[in-house]
Amino acid sequence: MALLELKNLHVALEDGTEIVKGVDLGISPGEVHAVMGPNGSGKSTLAYALMGHPAYEITEGQILFDGEDLTEAGADERAQKGLFLAFQYPHAIPGVTVTSFLRSAINAIRKARNGGADDPVAVKEFRTDLLAAMDRLKVPRELAQRYLNEGFSGGEKKRVEILQMAMLKPRIAVLDETDSGLDIDALKIVAGGVKELVGPEMGALVTTHYQRILNYIKPDFVHVFVDGRIVEEGGPELAHKLEAEGYEAFLPKQEKEAVS
Amino acid sequence: MAQSETEVVQGIGSDYEVKYGFSNPDEAKDYFFKSGRGLNHEIVDAISSHKNEPDWMRKFRHKSLDYFLARPLPQWGGNLNDIDFENIYYYIRPTEKQADSWEDLPADIKDTWDKLGIPEAEKKYLAGVGAQYESEVVYHKLRESLEKQGVIFLDMDSALREHEDLVKQYFGTIIPQNDNKFAALNSAVWSGGSFIYVPPGVKVEMPLQAYFRINAENMGQFERTLILVDEGAYVHYVEGCTAPIYTSDSLHSAVVEIVVKKDARCRYTTIQNWSTNVYNLVTKRAVAYEGATMEWVDGNLGSKLTMKYPAIWLLGERAHGEVLSIAFAGKGQHQDAGGKAVHVAPRTSSVITSKSISKNGGRAGYRGLLEVAKGAHGAKSKVVCDALILDDESRSDTYPYIRIDESDVDIGHEATVSKIGEEQLFYLMSRGLSEAEASALIVSGFVEPITKELPLEYAVEMNRLIQLQMEGSVG
User: Fold this and answer.
1) Distance of residue B7 Cα from the nearest chain A Cα, in angstroms
2) Which of B54, B57, B125, B444 has a C-alpha 20 to 30 A away from that of B413?
3) What ipTM does this complex have?
4) Which residues partner with B469 through β-bridges?
5) What's the pLDDT tens digit per position in B129-183?
6) CB contact under 8 A, A105 and B431
7) How far is CA B269 from the centre of its chain?
């Protein structure tokens, strides 16, 4: 059994519109899964629902993490168990520096894992880890004292998302269209960071529209995602096929006609 | 995950109870002197006699009482109509003598200060401490090195005895006794508070702190503070205040007058954490002369109703004034806070930054005045007031009054009102923070532009109090 299991997952908006229409997926540490789909296929909804966004309701199916049912759990509990979402559009938190935010997050997770009793990380240990991670991910040191995502460029935001991932050490990371808005240099750094973290401790699920990021993060599994469903699965070669032929072959019949 | 409203309120109350809300038995026999309830000329006379005051001060008090009685109760700001002035004790003297060693205080009073951590703070980072319990300053001490440099830091009553001329010269000149109803009340029954004189060129590097504690039920505390910062000198004065939680009301009405002379600088920091049965009606005003800087850092977290608008009159060229105001209103609280800057001289500048937070039905607001007199050319001012409303029951108000009689000025005003967004919360919670922790982090970031101005110890204290207000606040 995979560490993260999605079983027949259905997700609807608050108004009842169903966006994700039955997804089965299993991810384990050491694996990179790519969910590839056109705009509007429901990739981001899937990512948000996995993390427990309150605006997306799971109407059917289950999310199992390490065998435990997290379908009803809040985002905080999921994060404490070891799930992570790198946001496509991370939010600014004015007045809270990257450093103090990271320390708060790490301490919240440590507290949860310590049965609810405070267990703050030692200042020196935290500082050493943070500086090392920043150097590895080529995050400029001055960013550590800036307010989280406030006035950050698109590239800075994505790098800081990966920095958070490196510091929080999740077991499964979901990267939601992390490649969007990145130039090649930034993409290489971000992809390098992900590659480095994937291993015996962590698996990753990357959602993307384009094959481009997959040149830098080699997926073990590619899932073609159209209209809320996985319509085709395969190895890395499937990504290349998609790049060459487009999503057209996978679109529902009426849409195919509309496109042609 | 969700907590009911009752649990939330009990949570906050019990935490305040443990940390600040304890009280010593309020038996008249424990006190050296306690006046009867209510206010009249006999009580005023008794206070003055008790203190052996000079005749001019006795007359000043009586006249002030006349002003107080003649003035109507303000009908703006907060609701003052429920104050029962006849039920208040206007003067309680807990001990016969002031101590300059904590050991010399009665055990229960010493215990109060220990619980509040004042002796420990004194050792670590303060240059001097005054500790007022009910109406009198029961402990007072200044580091010897500062005494040798001519710095005077006394309670107001001792200052009147030991430096009568200096007190007489300034007392009631910055805030006239008939300035407003509550300034008149304070002028009539004042007791305790601080007197500070910093000689020319002397820079007091560590803060001087006063701590105000109400212990008795239905207490009225009316401390009076006068700070004189001579040319080129610097001082940072910090005040803190707490009280036990009672079901009936107490009244705190202070007057603070400050003179900042040429090229001097004064910073006055308040961390107001009264229990939620205290009316906090305070008048604070500073005058700043040529090239001088006056800064009010005003944190209001406690009290039932606070009406307080620290003012700066910029009387000399290039004088600079700053007001940094934080107001946090929880259930049953109304914080009517703000600031005033009055530009009288050319090329003066002022900045007012206000951050208000309201939750659980609380009401917090900014009420401010910016005035530029004719002839104050080249005056610059910036007013920024930001409000954060944490739920739909809570309220925020902004009343920015602006009067400009000079055309050569540079004035900016910005106001924002925001709510904590679901997306921001989700982002933080996806990193493992609980909803309450996430909200608290957003709030601490919201007030960060002000807390970063505080010395580390006070920034920590302010953040801790905000956490306390936030705990369990999200249902």
Assistant:
1) 19
2) B444
3) 0.95
4) none
5) 999 999 999 999 999 999 999 999 999 999 999 999 999 999 999 999 999 999 9
6) yes
7) 8
